[in-house]
Write a structure and sequence with these properties.
The complex is a heterodimer of chains A (about 500) and B (about 150).
Chain A lengths: L6 H74 L2 H25 L3 H29 L3 H11 L1 H140 L6 H40 L4 E5 H11 L1 H7 L2 E4 L5 E5 H17 L8 E9 L2 E8 L30 H11 L3 E6 L5 E7 L14
Parallel strand pairs in A: 2-4
Antiparallel strand pairs in A: 1-3, 4-5, 5-7, 6-7
Helix pairs in contact in A: 1-2, 1-3, 1-5, 2-3, 3-4, 3-5, 5-6, 7-9, 9-10
Chain B lengths: L7 E5 L3 H13 L6 E4 L2 H10 L10 E5 L8 H8 L11 E5 L4 H10 L3 E4 L4 H17 L8
Parallel strand pairs in B: 1-2, 1-3, 3-4, 4-5
Helix pairs in contact in B: 1-5
The chains are: A alpha+beta (about 500), B alpha/beta (about 150).
GO molecular function (chain A): phosphorelay response regulator activity; phosphorelay sensor kinase activity; protein kinase activator activity
Organism (chain A): Sphingomonas yabuuchiae
Keywords (chain A): Kinase, Membrane, Phosphoprotein, Transferase, Transmembrane, Transmembrane helix
Chain lengths: ~500, ~150
């Protein structure tokens, strides 16, 4: 095999890196979003605070203005004594009360403003009381008393103190604003830092992801081109291997053929000269006979035995052995010839073929008293008719041959199509085959069980060789005494590579 | 054959046993012609073409040829005998071999062999075939060799 980049191990780390990068990126985004949300909220709160501060300042100014106006109206009233000033005083007073309430409400959250606020209220109340006294005096026409009281009461001081308190409150608000400004700046800085870190993280993640994906893509591309090369050469490789196999197979066939041929040649000699010997014993035996009758004294017991028994016996053994050897060699020759025969695939209806076969050996089947049943329907296969006929004929003939002594022989032939295979089963209820011999019976010259039937151990070897040639397999299921089932598994359509060279 | 004495039989057969069995069975068919036996191609060719008493120099001959020889293929000898310029091109050649391969048989006839016989493995058949060949040899005409 050519060195091909292995995809599977590289895939996982890349996947993990990508997932991790995405998780980190997502986390960074989340943190950034969180920080942004926090900062927005912070800013909102800050602007609320700013508005609050300005409102407090505004209300403060308003309170101050109204207090001043009220004081001014009182002073005007003392000076002029006209009711317009009194009206102005009352108006200012009426306006002042809600403003003071507002101010109290606004500063209620700040404990540091509570004391000045109380002081403001106290002072305003005191001032109001003093003002109302002088106003009442003016109303009664005692302007001089009012003026005197005003001087004694030191309205100016009162006003000044009130102003101080207002200033203090305004300063406090300013201080708070400054504090909140600082906070705002700090949170902005934090936000910028967080954003910067998130951005950096994000960039890093993007970079890592990009690099990983690029590496992965490059790997993918490389393996794809390797795959393409492999794909392109696969046909050739398969062809090459097939050619190698075919060559090897042919070599074996040729070898078997040559061996069996060359074995035949000396065998002809052995048989030939045995025949000559046999022919020569005839006159010898006659000579002994004549000598025995004419001159018995020259015939020894040994000579008589040699001519009448030893020689014919030896010749007989040589003959049966050579005859057997001849059959074995012929079997090898037949197998090797079968291997060299060019297969011709054609459409074969299996049920018809099985019927033809059983008809052809009908006399054997009837002689042995066997019932053969064919289970229909059977599929149609594309295969070599002669080879298939020889296989099935052998299997069926075998099935009828090795009967169980205690029951009537039955043979059942069935075939079924499974995806990609056609399986023909030949089942008998005969004497069965020892599981130890299930492989052996397919070997040349090997047989199993009691040797009470004629045969050389060739049939099943032939069957297996043929099955292999048809792209099939043969197997057996059997227990001793319980019958046997032979399974022939075939491709539904036999495809043959064109022969590499004509058989020579 | 024309003159039972003059036509020589040249047997080229590497197996001594086969040669002996062939000769015996030919004799049993009543053939009395001289049989010269060679076990390899080189000496056989030497005799056929160059020996003073060989067929090329003196008189007609019939060749019994085995195809499996130790030093060359029988078809090479056949090709030499049947060559256009060979003085022996009309001499009958009987190929007697174990091979029954179709291609081989075709090739021999293409090269000009006159009879192709496959040696039967079974000896009885073998003996019978040789005896029939002997009978056949006794009736065929063998042409004279061109000078």
């Amino acid at each position: 095999m050519q060195g091909s980049p292995t995809l599977a191990p590289a895939e996982n780390p890349i996947g993990r890196i990508l997932v991790a990068a995405m998780a980190i990126g997502f986390l960074a985004l989340l943190v950034a979003a969180g920080a942004a949300g926090y900062v927005v909220r912070q800013t909102n709160r800050h602007s609320d605070w700013v508005i609050h501060t300005y409102r407090v300042e505004g209300v403060l100014i308003e309170v101050r203005r109204l207090a001043e106006q009220q004081e001014t109206a009182r002073r005007g009233y003392m000076l002029a004594g006209t009711p317009a000033f009194l009206n102005s005083f009352e108006r200012a007073h009426a306006e002042l009360a809600p403003q003071v309430d507002e101010l109290r409400r606004l500063t209620a959250d700040n404990p540091r403003q509570r004391a000045p606020m109380a002081m403001v209220e106290q002072r305003l109340a005191d001032l109001d009381a003093a003002q109302r006294q002088t106003n009442a005096l003016v109303q009664q026409g005692r302007g001089a008393d009012a003026l005197r009281q005003f001087r004694a009461d030191s309205g100016l001081l009162r006003m000044q103190k009130l102003r101080h308190v207002f200033d203090a409150m305004a300063r406090e608000e300013r201080r708070l604003l400054a504090l909140r400004d600082a906070e705002q700046v700090a949170s902005r800085q934090t936000f910028s830092t967080v954003m910067a870190i998130a951005a950096l993280l994000f960039l890093a993640v993007v970079a890592v992801s990009f690099l990983t994906i690029r590496r992965y893509t490059r790997d993918l591309h490389r393996s794809r081109s390797a795959l393409a090369v492999l794909n392109a050469t696969l046909e050739d490789q398969v062809k090459e291997r097939t050619a190698d196999l075919a060559l090897a197979n042919e070599e074996i066939q040729r070898f078997a053929y040559i061996v069996s041929h060359d074995l035949r040649s000396p065998l002809v000699n052995v048989m030939g000269f045995t025949a000559e010997l046999s022919a020569a014993t005839q006159p010898l035996a006659e000579l002994i006979d004549r000598a025995e009758s004419e001159a018995p004294q020259i015939v020894t017991e040994e000579a008589r035995l040699a001519a009448r028994e030893d020689l014919p016996e030896a010749i007989g053994f040589i003959r049966t052995s050579t005859a057997k050897m001849d059959r074995l060699i012929n079997a090898i020759l037949k197998l090797s010839r079968e291997g060299r025969r060019v297969l011709a695939p054609e459409m074969i209806a299996l049920d018809q073929l099985v019927e033809q076969i059983t008809d052809a050996i009908r006399h054997v089947i009837d002689d042995r008293g066997v019932t053969v049943t064919i289970e229909r329907p059977m599929p149609v296969v594309v295969s070599d008719r002669i080879a298939l006929e020889q296989i099935l004929s052998n299997l069926i003939e075998n099935a009828t041959k090795y009967r169980h002594p205690s029951r009537p022989a039955e043979v059942h032939v069935s075939a079924q199509e499974t995806p990609g295979r056609v399986i023909v089963a030949v089942r008998d209820n005969g004497r069965g085959i020892d599981p130890r011999d299930h492989q052996r019976i397919f070997d040349l010259f090997r047989r199993s069980g009691q040797q009470d039937q004629p045969g050389e151990g060739i049939g099943l070897a032939h069957v297996r060789a043929l099955a292999y040639r048809l792209g099939g397999t043969i197997s057996v299921e059997s227990q001793l005494g319980q019958g046997a089932t032979f399974f022939l598994s075939l491709p539904p359509a036999l495809s043959i590579a064109p022969p590499l060279q004509e058989s020579a | 054959m024309n003159d039972h004495r003059s036509v020589g039989i040249v047997m080229i057969e590497d197996d001594e046993g086969h040669a002996r069995l062939i000769e015996k069975n030919i004799r049993r068919a009543g053939i009395l012609n001289d049989i010269r036996h060679f076990t390899d191609g080189t000496t056989a060719l030497e005799y056929l073409f160059h020996a003073p008493d060989g067929p090329a120099k003196s008189g007609p001959a019939l060749v019994l040829l085995d195809l499996n020889l130790p030093d060359m293929s029988g078809t090479d000898i056949l090709a030499r005998i049947k060559d256009e310029n060979s003085p022996l091109r009309r001499a009958p050649v009987v190929v007697l071999t174990t091979t029954d391969d179709k291609v081989e048989i075709q090739r021999c006839y293409d090269l000009g062999c006159n009879v192709y016989i496959t040696k039967p493995v079974n000896y009885e058949n073998f003996a019978q075939a040789i005896r029939q060949l002997g009978l056949f040899l006794s009736v065929i005409q063998v042409p004279e060799v061109e000078g």
